[in-house]
Specification:
globular, Aminopeptidase, 147 residues, alpha+beta, single chain
Length: 147
């Protein structure tokens, strides 16, 4: 748990499939670019693999943030960190990332990477502020396998 101010206490819990539309709307509101892998059926596949790494943050039972963590057996990954704009800069994003990091360490991860689009300076600055370093010698390469 993490206090965001003197009155509101943030609660972090695992994502439930019933949260899908709320979280999808949150992603849009927070400015995330939605991709084919963000559809309901793909999210259900994610929940079969490691549901304990897909988290939401709540204030007064309202979802205000989310993050998707991934574990490939070697490294941890962070995707889709989103916080409602009116709740940003209140430690919600940092709390979600810390919780994913702790869960990844428990699985055996020694390193975690966060994927941030180059144009998303706001997210890059956020991750730098919580101890992440840009990897200028790496290039992300991807291929769409299905639509």
């Amino acid at each position: 748990m993490d206090e965001t101010d003197s009155e509101e206490i943030m609660k972090i819990r695992e994502f439930k499939i019933d949260d899908y539309q709320t979280v999808r709307d949150l992603w849009r509101t927070a400015g995330l670019t939605l991709r084919p892998g963000d559809e309901l059926e793909d999210v259900k596949l994610k929940l079969q693999r490691d549901p304990d790494l897909f988290l939401v943050a709540e204030l007064e039972d309202m979802i205000v943030g989310s993050v998707i963590g991934g574990w490939d057996g070697r490294r941890g990954w962070i995707y889709h960190l989103a916080v409602k704009p009116e709740h940003q800069r209140k430690s919600i994003g940092a709390g979600l990332v810390r919780e994913v990091e702790e869960r990844l360490v428990a699985k055996g991860a020694k390193k975690v990477n966060a994927q941030v689009y180059k144009w998303n300076e706001k997210s890059s600055e956020f991750f730098k502020a919580i101890g992440y370093e840009a990897q200028p010698d790496l290039v992300m390469i991807g291929k769409q396998l299905r639509k």
